[in-house]
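CORE FACILITY INTAKE
Project code: CF-77B
Contact: R.S. (postdoc)
Sample description: multi-component assembly, two entities in total
Requested service: structural model of the whole complex
Turnaround: standard
Below are the sequence entries exactly as provided by the requester. Do not edit them.
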Amino acid sequence: MKDKIHVGIIGFGTVGTGTAKILIENRELIKKRTGIDFILKRIADLDIKRDRGIKVPEGVLTTDAGAVINDPDIDVVVELMGGIHPAKDFMLNAVKNKKHVVTANKALIATEGNEIFAEAEKNGVEVGFEASVAGGIPIIKVLREGLVANNIVAVYGIINGTSNYILTKMTDEKVEFSDALKEAQRLGYAEADPTFDIEGIDTAHKLTILSSLSYGIPLSYNEVYKEGITKITAQDIEFASELGYKIKLLAITKLSNGEIEMRVHPTMIPNEYLISKVDGVFNAVYVEGDAVGSTLYYGRGAGDMPTGSAVVADIVDIARCDNGQKAKGIGYVSADYKIRKMEDIESMYYFRFSAMDQPGVLSKISGILGNYNISIASVIQKGRRLGGSVPLVVLAHTAKERDVLSAVKEIDNLPVVSDKTLFIRVEGKEE
Amino acid sequence: MKDKIHVGIIGFGTVGTGTAKILIENRELIKKRTGIDFILKRIADLDIKRDRGIKVPEGVLTTDAGAVINDPDIDVVVELMGGIHPAKDFMLNAVKNKKHVVTANKALIATEGNEIFAEAEKNGVEVGFEASVAGGIPIIKVLREGLVANNIVAVYGIINGTSNYILTKMTDEKVEFSDALKEAQRLGYAEADPTFDIEGIDTAHKLTILSSLSYGIPLSYNEVYKEGITKITAQDIEFASELGYKIKLLAITKLSNGEIEMRVHPTMIPNEYLISKVDGVFNAVYVEGDAVGSTLYYGRGAGDMPTGSAVVADIVDIARCDNGQKAKGIGYVSADYKIRKMEDIESMYYFRFSAMDQPGVLSKISGILGNYNISIASVIQKGRRLGGSVPLVVLAHTAKERDVLSAVKEIDNLPVVSDKTLFIRVEGKEE
């Protein structure tokens, strides 16, 4: 083991700045704890003029990523530029130069990770990606090491701070999605183009990684079911509350009948579940193991310093334990596995039908639900708007997604139904 | 790195059985994940007849601990017998035989750990103790590795399931301490002699370990302030609830003015804090780091399988990364440090005075509080019992413990105060 490790960072944005800050300001602390001196040797970024509020030693900044990747002194290359290209090439080149790499880039790991891990294994180097999921929460370490003795039963994650902020705002202040989004944008929690966050794409990237770690399968982003939060209304949140639930954008991976589920969608969670209390930009991941039972990990899912905390933990881990073993844990199973098709899943469901306010509507709708073996647990019907349409809310016991899709299609064709039905999958114990 | 690791267990009780179960039943899973085959070679216990509900291969059971400690094949000795003697000698002998050791024994680590770690370092072996705090929650790993880049600002833990069960029961069912304790004993959550749990001793053992990891100081059990939950009444819980708080037995360690606080006592926590929702036998540890901010880790703090999960994670870690680096992290600071004296701490406070129902009592009590710079935030006084005594509840802004002790002493000497004052420290933001 070396007692000095040289680190190079590519990308001096938010997370790059946080990482640099920690490496500089907490250098003595980390050295005391580990016996290793971590030296920040280079930071590459196209913009090396802007003031980031930290004092970087002279000679560290460069506009040339090659000066990091090809520096023979540098042991660990930290990729924090984001995006797929040229980040991927930078990482692969670093790996080929026998450098360990650390990244916070979930999109890159989720979509190109299999190739990067294979190349790393070939070159005997590590790939650290703790910062790619749930920011400062050490969830990758928990899954790979802390719960290594467990068959993973299920993982449920609130792993997109933007969506969680929006849903929390809608819940607390009874505002509509678009207003909550605007506020998130104003506060810098959502980007000008919020698609990645609100459509569940970012969540799906992270879920891909969690699922691979949990079940030892190759990264399979394309097989994740994705549904965003844009259709959720303040009214749905109020109905959910009345029924004893919160609405959260959940990433779910679990084993059902030997098949692996990977899905991202708005989900109703019972108020008494701890994860339903995770509000604002905070993230949390619930992990159930066959030995450990229920566990939950909570913290900030983004930000310069929390994400930097995870990046530096990866760098330290690699330096402490430089034996190639950590690379195991993604894709270790070469045997059969099957990703469950979305229409094969089973769940409880919340339906909001837009029904004309006429006699017999409930009977028609519930008749169709019954035909598809969807059994009703509770109904809320409120207010009357003569001749107009009213929301009819139905909470259903466990049913098959396939049946739900068919039933909704049939119901949406009824003349007494004025608008497309919204349904939300519901977690919790059957009563 | 070896591809086969031989494990010997001393102590075939609850945790020993869980550990053996996991090593046997999840052996293939762990081998797939790590590339290492973990072989359970020996289990020593005085009683090897009792049926533990698992099938142990022939030749594994022995009544002789020496058969584990001195077996040249065994790489890792797992001490799960509990107690100080002879567990300590067994561990030291194993270490002297150049065997790594893993234990769930918080009392042993907290009180004799400094000697054991020193001996382990001398012999170049590891001591794993993940299972000693918070059962299956990988909190030791989180502090040592996941948050290695952080100065730890504070740690707050609910780390004794028995006390938390009792307080939850008192809260949910409005029963008194003694009834809740009886129920805990009936369910096997509390022992016949519950002293260790309800007097905060077990919590203090665990806090000692968390504090050493957080601040790099030698294990200092004797300097932990300990106060149990026996004086909390159903009425206090109700008053707390009225004021917006839950009462929990908290382990607290934090830095204040360069001094380290280590204290265990009942604590009022605002309802909106996630940790206040941790109920029943569950444990949770809140950790605040200078980079990562607020994080929380939640799960089962005891039980055969959860604790076994942590034991096996330690065994795997040692096998994966056999380079002596993990031993760093307890006692790495040789420099000055100071444990803060309890009377030097500052906190908000809840007081329940037993005041005679007479005019002028509130003015007398609040006068004395004022003399000691204890400023009142809210008061609850309810009911009248002519000539009798009524509870007078005061919530005070941040004050010095030293002043609180003096004020309470003076107040308890007033003729209009009929019984000893109970006070509870209060966490949360000043309003």
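Facility notes:
- The two ends of chain B are 56 Å apart (CA to CA).
- Residues 162 and 189 of chain B are 6 Å apart (CA to CA).
Invoice: internal transfer
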